[in-house]
Amino acid sequence: HLCPLGIAANVIQAAFCRLDTVLVMFGFLYYTYSNMKDADDITGCTAILESLEKRWLKMDQEVFIAAVILNPVYQLKPFSRIQYLNVASIIGLMTCLYICFEQKPPPDKFIMDLKDYLAKVKSFNNIDLMVNSEMNTAENENQILDPLTILMTYGFPGHPDMPFIAFAKHILSISANSASCECLFSLLRNLLTKLQNHLDLKTLTNLAEAKMHIHNEHLQSGKAKS
């Protein structure tokens, strides 16, 4: 019973854990424990499944679902075909979240690009090719695939992202745990020593951000422990 929980805990408690990763792990756990049919497993599995359901009901479900859909690797693949997740419902979901974050309705271009993204047409007609390319690159470099690298290919260097891509990057940049914050505060405490306290706030902040960036790069490449 503990092995799947251990896998999920290691993933979710990493230095940075995206929202889509959390929901995929929830699905992994629910599927795993739903398929344990031995009589000795029933009591423990039932308790775990009930706990998962309770936690899911307490979560902001919409933003987790949106994160999975906005990850080009997943899109709608992990979900069943239900009315709640047809194109019209997804547009409504993303529109509500956009208003929540931006405090204004999304532009028409946002809706158009969202439809194209879901249908894999026009600007996104090659998205499967880009996903496979980035997956192969990550595998060859022994790194974890970052969906943001895929989304970045749909922009122009030095120019603002189109609204849909900017929104997707925003959602996929949210950390679902406090590990990143705790790590940052730990770095700040280490920097605020008697030897370094003569530095101004901006310099200290830049040092902390640089160290966090290096730490995250090492985590991505497997050179550091999470």
Automatic annotation (TrEMBL):
Residue spans crossing the bilayer: 7-31, 82-101
Superkingdom of source: Eukaryota
Keywords: Membrane, Transmembrane, Transmembrane helix
Protein name (database record): HAT C-terminal dimerisation domain-containing protein
Organism: Gymnopilus junonius (Spectacular rustgill mushroom)
Lineage: Eukaryota, Fungi, Dikarya, Basidiomycota, Agaricomycotina
